[in-house]
Amino acid sequence: MRAELDTNLQLLQQTRRSSHAWRRPLGLPENKDAGLMSGRDILCNADVTLDDLAATFPEFSHLRDASRQLRERLEIEVKYSHEIQAQQEAIQQVKREEQMLLPEDMDYFSLNMSNDAKSKLAEARPASIAAASRIPGMTPAAIVILLNHVKSTQRATSPRPNRR
Asked: Any signal peptide, and if so, which residues (predicted)?
């Protein structure tokens, strides 16, 4: 099934039309974007399903006969690809910055995260992002929030170059 999934993902990515050429046949409202979109881009629209594409565009008609499991997996991979990519980027950011030191006087309760995560950080008072990530029960989302807060605080307090 993986090969079939990859083939269809590639077809969705490589099939490109103007926004108008996708939207009009699908009965979607027009938008200002006149640029090219891939089948993958239009499928990310919450109002478009794979079945819509298969019924409307001949190059996707073969998907009407595909297994329900393949159709569901294809739609899920496309619709959540942006979120998955954002999470992967956040993971890489944490890995790059894991040695970043945390201020000793940091007010963890001012952070926009769960009260449980705030309490765990305040109790453990980790010295670095890496140490914070090893606290039992700390979520990846809380670590990203912590990292972004420290980075923005550092930018705000770092001296600015003199301009004349």
From this structure: none
